[in-house]
Design a protein that fits this description.
Blueprint lengths: L1 H10 L1 H23 L7 H15 L1 H8 L4 H6 L3 E6 L15 E7 L6 H9 L7 E4 L6 H6 L7 E7 L8 H11 E12 L5 H17 L8 H6 L22 E7 L3
Parallel strand pairs: 1-2, 1-4, 2-3, 4-5
Antiparallel strand pairs: 5-6
Helix pairs in contact: 2-3, 2-9
């Protein structure tokens, strides 16, 4: 049974990788038909479109899986002025405790998610308290125009995002700077497994997974979080034991040290 469990876990990433390869090919063909050979210099835009379609199509499955985890209660812990890092298709919008929320800034560099987020906002009571900002958290000039400056945020919500950003160390340092003293960094992420056989599987799949699914399996996300600044409660980070998973989680609510 242990061997079957490990084999199933080892081969599980292939399904999502293959589905994404198909979507990337469709996006490429569509771009060539529309733009001709000029599409070859717009591969980043093609990739953004394909990844947005992948996450939009699978949004319901991700939400259903997250409902079996700590994610809903983590999102409900966010209050005041919140920055949601990489909201994607808006999977967390329905989970906010609106009685605690003053305002949410969804900072998302992929412009193809805007319609998905707006559709979900229409169904919930955050329509006038949620703004999409198409940028990265590193784009301080863009954020400053929105009033997001150092020490201005009560909470940053980060659900499966640090695996996908270009430089998680830089992103986490920005997160720490933007939080008020006593502000909360609320996260559910994944990184390297502590199981040596599983790390072999992660290293095997990571090139295709990072290319076509858009996130990395082999990052030391825990270190990036802890090294971003001083936290009051670093020992509160939880690492649920899941030795076979190529996406083992870390989770928690860290408080910025005053």
């Amino acid at each position: 049974m242990v061997q079957k469990g490990r084999l199933a876990s080892f081969f599980r990433p292939w399904g999502l990788i293959w589905f994404s390869i198909c979507l990337h090919w469709e996006a490429f063909i569509e771009a060539v038909r529309r733009d001709g050979l000029a599409a070859l210099v717009r591969l980043r835009q093609i990739r953004d479109a394909a990844l947005a379609k992948l996450l939009s199509i699978t949004s319901g499955n991700f939400i259903a899986y997250e409902d079996t985890t700590i994610v809903p209660s983590l999102v409900q812990a966010a209050g005041g002025v919140i920055l949601e890092l990489g909201p994607g298709p808006g999977n967390q919008i329905h989970r906010y405790n609106t009685s605690l929320v003053n305002y949410v800034y969804g900072v998302e560099p992929n412009c193809h998610f805007k319609d998905d987020i707006n559709d979900k906002l229409e169904k919930h009571s955050l329509r006038d308290r949620y703004k999409i900002i198409v940028s990265g958290i590193e784009d301080s000039d863009v954020l400053r125009e929105e009033g997001i400056t150092e020490g201005s945020l009560d909470a940053v919500l980060c659900i499966q995002v640090l695996c996908a950003v270009k430089d998680p160390k830089t992103v986490m340092k920005e997160v720490w700077k933007l939080l008020k003293p006593g502000g909360k960094f609320i996260f559910w992420e994944h990184g390297w497994s502590r199981n040596h056989l599983t790390t072999v599987a992660q290293a095997f799949w990571n090139p295709a997974w990072s290319t076509f699914v858009g996130c990395h399996m082999t990052r030391n996300v825990l270190a990036d979080i802890l090294n971003s600044g001083e936290w009051e409660n670093p020992d509160d980070i939880e690492e649920p034991e899941d030795p076979f998973s190529c996406l083992p989680r870390i989770q928690g609510v860290l408080v910025k040290k005053a």
